[in-house]
Design a protein that fits this description.
The structure is a single chain. This protein has 179 residues and is mainly α. Helices cover 62% and strands 0% of the residues. It folds into two domains: 139 residues, no CATH class; 39 residues, no CATH class. α1 packs across α6 and α2 runs parallel beside α5. The chain starts with a helix and ends in a 21-residue tail after the last helix.
Length: 179
């Protein structure tokens, strides 16, 4: 459990997974890089919520915390927020990896109450916040990339920069390109 807590610190494992994806998959390098940045960004959002709520970490008699924390604030869990945000973002880049990504996120989440660092409600709130944040990041899915390419082609055509190159692209089947 301590190991799971350590790899979740500052989103380290998620940054590493995103970097590995960027190295191994050059055509989607930009998307992997964006997804890798989600975990540390989510921690920033999480900290703002922690400051607003102000809930302190649990003090359980006979069970001192088995880990250290950068602050006394516990709600929501930053490990849960960053893990679910990153698992969601990385899973949008590579949908086939969703099961292992969410399994790792769940394991990191489960470690937090075990280590005496959080109440279960801290973890649930962090997980919910992370799911929302990971889903809101633009430009990660294949569809997002296709739409961006369509917009670029249409903008180039509208500006006259195509010089006889391809016609504007319709955004969806049956839709006519803008004139």
């Amino acid at each position: 459990m301590k190991g799971l807590g350590m790899i979740g610190e500052f989103g380290a494992v998620w940054i590493a997974l995103g970097a590995a994806g960027a190295i191994a998959d050059p055509p989607r390098r930009r998307r992997w890089t964006i997804a890798a940045a989600v975990a540390p960004t989510a921690i920033g959002f999480n900290y703002a919520v922690k400051l607003a709520i102000g809930r302190e970490r649990p003090l359980i008699k006979g069970h001192p915390p088995l880990g250290r924390a950068p602050s006394k604030l516990s709600f929501p869990s930053a490990h849960a927020t960053s893990s679910l945000a990153a698992a969601t973002a990385l899973g949008r880049v590579e949908p086939r990896a969703r099961v292992p990504l969410y399994a790792l996120a769940a394991a990191i989440c489960a470690s937090r109450p075990y280590l005496g660092m959080h109440y279960p409600s801290d973890v649930l709130a962090g997980a919910a916040l992370g799911l929302v944040l990971g889903a809101l990041v633009p430009g990660l899915s294949e569809r997002d990339a296709e739409e961006r390419l369509i917009d670029l082609v249409n903008e180039a055509h509208a500006s006259g920069a195509t010089n006889g190159r391809p016609e504007p692209v319709a955004a969806s089947p049956g839709e006519r390109p803008a004139a």
